Amino acid sequence: MATPLTADLIQKCRIQFPALAREHDGQPAIFLDGPAGTQVTQSVIDAISHYYCTCNANHGGQFATSRESDVLVQQAHQALADFVGADNWREIVFGANMTSLTFAFSRAVSQTWSAGDNIVVTRLDHDANVSTWALAARDQQVEVRYADIHKQDCTLDVDDLKSKIDERTRLVAVGFASNSSGSINPVKEITAYAKQFQTQVFIDAVHSAPHRLIDVAGIGCDFLACSTYKFFGPHIGVLWAKSEILENLEAYKVRPSSMDIPDKWMTGTQNFASLCGSRAAVDYIADLGRTLADDGSLSRREALQVAYAAITKYEDDLCTNMIAGLKSIEGLRIHGITEDERMQERVPTVSVTHPKLTAAELANQLGERGIYAWDGNYYALELTEQLGLEPDGMVRLGLVHYNTQQEVDRLITALKEILA
Ligand SMILES: Cc1ncc(COP(=O)(O)O)c(C=O)c1O
After folding, report:
1. What are 145-158's pLDDT values in tens digits?
2. CATH classification for the domain delimited by 7-41+299-419, as one of 3.90.1150.10, 3.40.50.1010, 3.30.1490.20, 2.30.30.100
3. How far does the centroid of ligand 1 lie from the alpha carbon of residue 179, in Å?
4. Is there an atom of ligand 1 within 6 Å of 237 CB?
5. pLDDT value of residue 257
6. Is the pTM of this model over 0.70?
């Protein structure tokens, strides 16, 4: 049984995020835009600032600041390895964001494909895990197969996905959780199935990262990507891949840069300060785990396990309450799982539409009341197309653990007022 995240502890978490003190017309602003980027902790800001104040230097120099910078960068690799459950820090590649990393990586991976091969992507995913692969496939004359969704609850049709895998399937690219409907995909099951065909599996964990513990070893996938700005850190992308893949695959490189991993995959000069910030984001979550367990001796990975168990439970309860409130609003349609008993199948990202207002109008009216929520398709384009919701899209109400029941209550009251 996980130690619960009490209201008192949530307040202690909130205090660590300076932006959460923001007011809008004399009321606290409500940040429901986490799926597009969460707020950052003071510790993240401090880590970035510390880097610039003390050891701002490029990589590999024969002098103190460069050496200190390199140590901090390695520590960031280690923190992210702990975060995804990898035991080798060299398997962590940093880059500008998930999209850029995936474009670069898909270009390299696709060199191993040949005409007649196929890859499988899904109609539930963010386009960063669809077009990146589809464009690489086009260049190699490789067929792209799209796994369908169940429209009624916006979940992945896993049987359809499996039916599209065969001996010529070189890659399955699938998200851990939808950034639109919040549905969680059974990535372990999908990976195990794909492995019967020697198919590589790429997981987009960008959306699940603030909500669910990542465990690359447990999933059994070959590659996984996430972005630290979705889990309380700076705007940085992270790619994990098995070391043998990173070592053997040919990278697009300039000369004479290092061929050792992970440098081989990290083109150009990195955003070193933000790498330090990304470590601080992981440590914020780990520290929460140590507080919950009342055990300062937990390793970072152990502490993350404790933290995520509590975050998952807290968010599931908050999401159940938010969905109950949304269901009480006449005409409001929730595009995703709504049953209480299925909360473990989703993260607390809930997309809605109402016939009275467009998504942009509804988001705008919420924004005027200090409730910050995204509208549109949020790049989950295949999904909004399937649902017939282009070009307006939906309004996305995204909770993370720093959101509270009071905020959910204010949201429901505001929606009732707006849609009355
Ligand atoms: C599920 C998912 N995948 C990929 C991305 C793209 O991430 P990045 O902005 O790091 O390229 C996003 C961003 O919203 C996302 O939600």
Report:
1. 999 999 999 999 99
2. 3.90.1150.10
3. 8
4. yes
5. 85
6. yes
